[in-house]
Amino acid sequence: MKVDKDYAAEGDKIYATFTHAEGYSSSGIVAIIKNDAGEDVTSSITFGEDETGSYLIMPGFNITVSVVFQPLPKFYIIGDMNSWDRTAMTEMTYNAETEKFEFEFAPTTKVFFAFSDKQFTEAEAAADADWSIFNSTNRYALGEGDVEAPLNEIKTLSKVNGTIVLNKVKEGTTYKIIVEKDFNAVTIEGEAAPEPIEDTYVVAGSSDVLFGKTWDGTAEANKMTLNAETGKYEKKYTSVSLTAGNIEYKIVKNGSVWIPDGMGNNQIVEIPADGVYDVLFT
């Protein structure tokens, strides 16, 4: 703390400049003023503020002014980014202007994480080997269990044994996690990866009787459907009159990728004799 004069008469304004140490805040400071007898006379001192700054009015006796700075609050993120190590959690940056905690990262895959209001020592972590103390006392999340992290929305945080899942990660995107000063809410800013486009598969081949048109890799009528039980794409043709011989075909992925047999040739369906057939492609 610095004052603007070495001596002041009764009634003079005394301007003071305060410089806080690292880890302490310049807001919420508390001034304690004592007389020569060591008595606290803070309540009897007149304070004010003008265009020059904050000041106090010098009383008719000597005073000693001391200032108590408030330590910055701390909040930690724990998860995949620090291997879930309670002794090496990542301290979030406290933004004094917004009075919020911030953390930025650019993951490339799905991420699981939570928050904590305390960094554990090695001894504390060893004593809490089953995580029961940490999970009930120091862990913050959106809810019990794994909860999907909604993007760009303010969501309530609470002390709960849960994990936040950032699922739809868009590669190359930086995500910013913002937690309110009292730890009661979180916002995760960033862009979600687009929903994957489902692959399409179409049967195309040499028989216009079977396929309606020869070698059409985009025909909606020949589109295969996914069998949820087998996990395979299928297309079935029923009661089709076919003549004896071979029908050549390929499966066409997404309208442009033609899938041959293992030798790079057209695949073959053998029709042994003239007749009415059911034909299943998988």
What would the principal axes of the Cα set say about the shape? rod-shaped
Output the number of helix runs: 3
Number of strands: 25
Structural class: mainly beta
Which regions contain 5 or more consecutive residues with pLDDT less than 50? Answer: none
Radius of gyration: 36 Å
Mean pLDDT metric? 91
Beta-strand percentage range: 35-45%
Compact overview of the structure:
The protein has 282 residues and is mainly beta. The protein has helices at residues 122-127, 132-138, 208-211; strands at 2-3, 13-17, 24-34, 47-49, 54-57, 64-71, 76-79, 90-91, 93-95, 100-105, 111-116, 139-141, 145-148, 154-156, 158-159, 162-166, 175-180, 185-189, 201-205, 225-227, 232-242, 245-253, 257-259, 267-271, 275-281. The chain starts with a strand and ends with a strand.
Task: Walk me through what this model shows.
The protein contains 3 helices and 25 strands. The chain is mainly β and 282 residues long. It has helices at residues 122-127, 132-138, 208-211; strands at residues 2-3, 13-17, 24-34, 47-49, 54-57, 64-71, 76-79, 90-91, 93-95, 100-105, 111-116, 139-141, 145-148, 154-156, 158-159, 162-166, 175-180, 185-189, 201-205, 225-227, 232-242, 245-253, 257-259, 267-271, 275-281. Helices cover 6% and strands 44% of the residues. The longest helix is centred in the middle third of the chain and has 7 residues, at 132-138. A hairpin with a 4-residue loop joins β17 and β18 (185-189). The mean pLDDT is 91. It is rod-shaped. Strands 7, 8, 11, 12, 13, 15 and 16 form a 7-stranded mixed sheet that branches.
